């Protein structure tokens, strides 16, 4: 009797087809999950900057005092968002003595995140997003 060694071409093609189908399902799912996980960068950075502004306001009664160590704009450590003053912020625009509005604009691959888009936060704690999902789902 002759023993068969290895796989036939048909068996190989079936195995490759199965791997292709699994990859077609897994890769978009992983990409979506990774974008969702990177949103934490924006939320963490915005709340951290807001805390710095509040400490400054507590000490100097102004968000823009020269002794404050708030530096804008800057990129998040992973480079997924740019944190900056929000010139179109509501009910205030940008940063002044008594109010602030800041935003986290997505960069690179995170810019494809249309669900949440740009994150926004102001001096009274109002949170917002520009994406289709709404602030309550993104924050």
Brief characterization of the structure:
Helix content is 40%, strand content 14%. With 139 residues, the chain is of the alpha+beta class. It has one domain.
What form results from the Cα inertia axes? elongated
Structural class: alpha+beta
**Which value, in Å, is the CA radius of gyration?**
24 Å
Largest sheet: 5 strands, antiparallel
Count, helices: 2
The helix/strand series, from N terminus to C terminus, equals: HEEEEEH
Query: Strand content of the residues, in percent?
Result: 5-15%
Q: Which residues sit in consecutive blocks of at least 5 with pLDDT less than 50?
A: none
Largest sheet strand order:
1-2-3-4-5
- Count of β-strands: 5
Average pLDDT, rounded to a whole number, is 89
Distance between the termini: 68 Å
Counted up, domains total 1
Tell me the helix content: 40-55%
Written overview of the protein:
By secondary structure, the protein is an alpha+beta fold. It contains 2 helices and 5 strands, in the order H-E-E-E-E-E-H. The chain has one domain (38-138). Helices cover 40% and strands 14% of the residues. A 5-stranded antiparallel β-sheet has the order 1-2-3-4-5. Strand 4 and strand 5 form a beta hairpin. It is elongated. The protein starts with 8 loop residues before the first helix and ends with a helix. The model has no long low-confidence stretch (mean pLDDT 89).
